[in-house]
Amino acid sequence: MGVAALFFVVMGALFWALERSFPARQERVLRPEWGTDLLFYLGQAVLWNGAVVSGLVFIAGVLETLPLGGLRESVRSLPLWAQIALVIVLCDVAIYWFHRASHALPSLWRFHRVHHTTVHLDWLAAYREHPVDGLFTRLVENLPAIVLGFPLQVIAGFVAFRGLWGLFIHSNVSLRLGPLEWLVGAPRLHHWHHEASANSHCNFANLSPLMDHLFGTFHDPAAAPARFGIEEPSPRSYVGQLVAPLLPAWLLRRLGSSRSADALVTHVELAAAEAVAGAFARRRPSPEEVHAPSPPMREPCLGACGFSDRTGRSDAAREQGRLFLRLPAGDTPAPPEGETPECTHGYVRTYRRHLTPLPCGSAKACDGRKAAGS
Questions:
Q1: Which of 53, 59, 121, 250 is deepest in the core (most CB within 10 A)?
Q2: pLDDT at position 255
Q3: What digits encode the pLDDT tens for the residues 3-41?
Q4: DSSP letter at 194?
Q5: Do the domain assignments include residue 216?
Q6: What is the C-alpha separation between 18 and 300, in angstroms, rounded?
Q7: In 10 A of CB 141, how many CB atoms?
Q8: Are 131 and 47 in contact (CB under 8 A)?
Q9: % of residues, the chain, pLDDT over 90
Q10: What stretches of the chain show up as alpha helix (H) in DSSP?
């Protein structure tokens, strides 16, 4: 947990500087749903990354039982730079087609769509990913490296590099990379992949846009995307986005629901939010009530109509027989010259809600002083 917190602080500082220096859009740091994406980050760091590592180790163990020795020896005979180039290209091809399949096949889209529900794209939004989608993605993009016999330590380095690159291409940054964009892409290309219209079916490449050029899905207009997200309704909470893709259609039919899983969870979220809001709601005064003159109110007259303001004038006022009212700091002392609060039967009638009497005698004394004209 400490490592996850340190990594978050370091990445947050780095991308805060980049997103402030080269912003693609004007966006607050603590923008809406920032907390939801933080929960996705914590979920990955604390829980789901362990499942990914276990999955990679399991796949590597299974492949060790297959007759892949000749293939692996052929790869090891290549120069190091050729081995690296080969594994990057093969991994990019694998994840490109899996990514396209995740948009095309309903069984995969139900999990991958969680990643596309974000409407505020920045580095932290890269972590909005269903754990099932994340597990499949990590296994597919690293499968060629495992098949070719690369050590798991080297594969871990690939995973870390692709993870950092994923943060960069999701970040709210308009930084251009010049000729390198033909080889490694740029954030604006992936931003178009998250655009809310049909153009989201483009720019599927994870690392190099060469895959999109090769397979006809490259899209790079002059304008920036207008909005992000998906058109269909989707849950907004962390738990809702984890649960909805796991609800099978037969269970919904069994429950007698005509809604889709996403619509049902969204309905539950809204109902829960309304219930919580109703439980803690406070009636807010209308503008007319706020600015309306305060009606007279009766307060106990605890003494000879003696009041004090916050300026220390009460002693002199009592010596002069004048009445002062206690006001919040900065207000003009009241009442105005010549105005006297009405004091009868142990009560003083004031004309401001916030005025407070000072104890200085009895109600009878108050009436007596009023009768004496003090």
A1: 121
A2: 65
A3: 889 999 999 999 999 999 999 888 888 899 999 999 999
A4: T
A5: yes
A6: 63
A7: 23
A8: yes
A9: 44
A10: 2-21, 34-43, 49-64, 69-76, 80-104, 106-112, 131-147, 152-170, 181-184, 187-193, 210-215, 238-243, 249-254, 261-280, 287-291, 314-320, 363-371
Count other Cβ atoms within 10 Å, centred on residue 343. 22
Q: Note whether 322 and 309 are within 8 A (CB).
A: no
What's the burial of 183, exposed, middle or buried (CB within 10 Å: 0-12/13-18/19+)?
exposed
**pLDDT over 60 at 318, yes or no:** no
Record the pTM.
Answer: 0.69
242 shares its domain with 357? no
CA–CA distance, 309 with 312 (Å, rounded to integer): 7
Mean pLDDT of 196-213: 85
Sequence-distant (≥ 6) Cβ neighbours of residue 80 within 8 angstroms:
none
Give the tokens for residue 151: 């050590």
Which tokens hold the place of 167? 């943060």
Q: Please give the residue range of the domain that contains residue 191.
A: 2-246
> What pLDDT band is residue 186 in, cutting at 50, 70 and 90?
confident
Residues 6+ apart with CB under 8 A from 309: 324, 325, 326, 327, 333
Residue 30 and residue 173 share a domain: yes
Q: What is the pLDDT of residue 249?
A: 72
Q: Which of 314, 248, 267, 231 has its CA nearest to residue 110?
A: 248
Asked whether the beta carbons of 283 and 335 are under 8 A apart, the reply is no
